[in-house]
Amino acid sequence: MTDMVCPLGAGTIWDDNEIRYSLRSVAKFMPDIRRVFLVGRWPKAGIQDRFPFDLVHIPARDLNGCKEVNIKDKLLLACRHPDVSDKFLLWNDDYFLLQPCSSAWQDWPNYAEGTLEGRLRTRISRDIYWKSMDATRRALNQRALRTHYFDVHCPIVYDKALFPQVMARYAPEWDRPEGLVIKSLYGNALKLKPTPFKDLKIDVSLTEAEIRARVAGRALFSVGNRGLNHDMCRYLKELAPRFY
Length: 244
Prior knowledge:
The chain is 36% helix and 16% strand.
């Protein structure tokens, strides 16, 4: 059985309710997860469900102004925790499962969609995330490595021993204010074989009928702040009711 690690930030526009419904979807569709480690601040909304897995809190603060650096530091904390399994599944609070799925790390492909170069060309805003992708592309190019884009909105398996080694290998680049995009750095540094994946993060306001049409046939999807309207909240409550 695999453990799951979920880094949490300083709060969300939905008062941290995302993690509650996200974990309910895990309990519903991935019942063989053993433990879920929440790394960061405990969710404001609390979690009262009696899940079939153990919840373990690893307290951590966001000490850096860069989101990617804070996530990397939280994952390093998880890697140092003696109870985290040797390989663990990274999970984010905005992931929602839609159908039964295995938690065994051997069964998880390394999902990717295109390349960092492709993402840089198509991203409209040259924001901090664009700069993080570009810094990662340059770091990988300098080492003659591929630049598959592994930072799609779905889980990835990290090796507890290898993750710190990879991050340390790129220590000079991590000193830059924009940081690096972690999944793409890890996957390309270890030359993981990419499995094509059509990403889906709903970050626009949709009706419930439109939401159902978008997610039809998918195993999971992700939600951004602009997608968290009344219809989305109602859909998530129906998708993942409370565990007692």
